[in-house]
Amino acid sequence: DTAVSQTPKYLVTQMGNDKSIKCEQNLGHDTMYWYKQDSKKFLKIMFSYNNKELIINETVPNRFSPKSPDKAHLNLHINSLELGDSAVYFCASSRTTDTQYFGPGTRLTVL
Amino acid sequence: GEDVEQSLFLSVREGDSSVINCTYTDSSSTYLYWYKQEPGAGLQLLTYIFSNMDMKQDQRLTVLLNKKDKHLSLRIADTQTGDSAIYFCAESTDGQNFVFGPGTRLSVLP
Fold this sequence. Notes:
The complex is a heterodimer of chains A (111) and B (110). By secondary structure, chain A is an all-beta fold. In chain A, strands 2, 4, 5, 6, 9, 10 and 11 form a seven-stranded mixed beta sheet that branches. Chain A has strands at residues 4-7, 10-13, 19-25, 31-37, 43-50, 54-56, 64-67, 75-78, 87-94, 101-102, 106-110. Chain A contains no helices and eleven strands. Chain B is mainly beta. In chain B, strand 4 and strand 5 (43-50) form a beta hairpin. The A-B interface holds A 7-14, 17, 20, 22, 104, 111 and B 1-4, 43, 88, 90, 96-103. Strand 2 of chain A pairs antiparallel with strand 10 (98-100) of chain B, so a sheet runs across the interface.
C-alpha cells in the first residue's frame, strides 16, 4: 500500500495557468510538507503544516498556497505559473519531528 | 481536478499480447495519448487518439477508447523484449496542457 501518494506524476502546462498537485498520506501522520527539487537536485522546503500551524519558507512566492482539507491531505495550488516553477515537487509526511516519508514526486513542466 | 490512473505493473511472456489499461476523470478530454519511457530515456510519444474515435491501429499497437466509461487501453501484439518500458497514459483538453498517469511498468519475460 502506498504511504504517501501524489497526483499527477507529470504535469505539463503553459505559463500563466493555475494548477494543483494533490498529496495524500495514509500513515496517520500529523505533519505534512512540500518540497521543491531544482535542476541541481537540491530539495528546498516550501511549507510544513500540521493542524495547528503553517510554516512558510519566506522565499516561496505567494503564488504558491497549500490547502489541507483534512489531516491526510495537503494539496499545493500554484497560480499564474512561471517558467521558473518547472521542477519536481515532493510531498512528505511525518509524525511531529520524526522521519519524513516522501511521495514519488510530481514533475511540473511550464512551457 | 483531473486525474489519470493506471495499474503500476504488468508482466507478459515474449510473443504474447500486452494490454495496458488507463482510466481518466476529465469528461472534456479531447486528446488521449500513450507515451513510452525506456530506462534512462525521456518520454516518447507512441500514439494518440481523438475523443471522437473509438479505435486506432498502428502496426503492433491498438488503442481502444471507451468514452462513456473514460477508459483507454493500449494493446501491443507479439510483445518483444524491446517493449519492456514504462508506459504512460495522458489526457488533454486543448493539446497544450497534459495530465499524466503514474505509468505502467511492462516486463517482458523470455
